[in-house]
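Dear colleague,

Thank you for sharing your sequence with our group. We've completed the structure prediction you requested, and as agreed, I am returning the results in plain text so they can be pasted directly into your records. Please verify that the sequence below matches your submission; if there's any discrepancy, let me know and we will rerun it promptly.
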Amino acid sequence: MIQPLSKSSAGLDVHREIIVATVLQEQPDGTVNKTVKEFATFSRNLEELARWLTSLNPEIVVMESTGVYWMQVYEALETAGMIPWVVNAYHIKRVPGRKTDVQDSEWLAELARCGLLRASFIPPKDFRQLRLLTRYRRKLSGVLSSEKNRLHKILESCGIKLGIVLSDIDGVSARRIISSLIDETIQPDQIAVLLHGSLLPKLMMIQQSLSTTLNERQRFLLKQIQAHLLWLEARIEQIDEQLVTAMVPYQEFCQLLQTIPGIDLIAATMLLAELGTDMSVFPNQQHLCSWAGLAPGNNESAGKRKHGKTRKGNAHIRALLCECANAAIKSKSQFKGRYQGLVIRRGHKRSIVAIAHKLLQTIYVMLKKHEPYRDPQIDYEELVVKRNSARWIKALDKYGYLPKIKLQN
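Please find the predicted structure tokens below.
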């Protein structure tokens, strides 16, 4: 929200090693008094910065969202009882010219004093700490996928065409086969004992795909990759345990999100870590979608609307919602029908972004109203009847109501 004109404001130009702070204070005669001071970024220096700002008591304290350097400054000022504004760098671009750290901090303070800045959404401290886990988990998941692809690529380069026969190279049977190849514990003609029952009809093709013999270097490399895969899966599992424990105070919101097609427990946890539980910080659905980088861009000139790309936003929640959208379009829900209508003329990627946009709008309404998801294309009453009809008929028969119904018919 843009603030009205302020009597005093502070601008912080945050860097890795230094922070340049400028405080502008309007005097009774209309003149503006400027105070500039420089601080280091160690913890004790941040405490000194907080004390200095508290003594001057500015109405607004603003700083640019510079990498991760703003986070420690924000927490130090938050601990001191101030709620600083973290503003989008896109909103504070100044006219090119002379540029120094002092001028940058003064420009921030001047924009804040004139009410020309808008505070970015910063979640509560608990969710900020939870983001460290969810984002690290996402990074590990990306490395895990990369390692699986590398394993598949090496098998192909060695002449092992297992990926042609098996749909999932990372399945239980595939892992058993790869382990046996690495350890040389079993011959291809004895591979049947490692296969799941549904794969036995493909036994002949699987044996043909394993006809190549691995050399020592290939076997060594595959063993290293396999060990790395197991390590990554163990780390992700440990993080999941921490996330589930952290979600206990927010169990109600987590269960609400899981009623949406395509969102499971981990996805709900990661969404709450990025969004928080209080939707009142966003004026409406459109603001939330724009913040996440999922809203359509505006590009209009002379009354003609041109193609507008989506703006940059929260890359983590955008990628997560696109993953959920890919799962949602495979379920019997409104998202599947919407996707089928869009993909013909817009293509898969744009259609997925549109579905992610719809998912985020749905999440906003659900968290704001505290209501579970109800799909407009599903007859929930019919589902309840199908699920309980056998038990109801049995109960009616048990208590003697079923014969009476038959006589009336």
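Summary note from our side: The longest strand covers residues 18-26.

Kind regards,
the structure core
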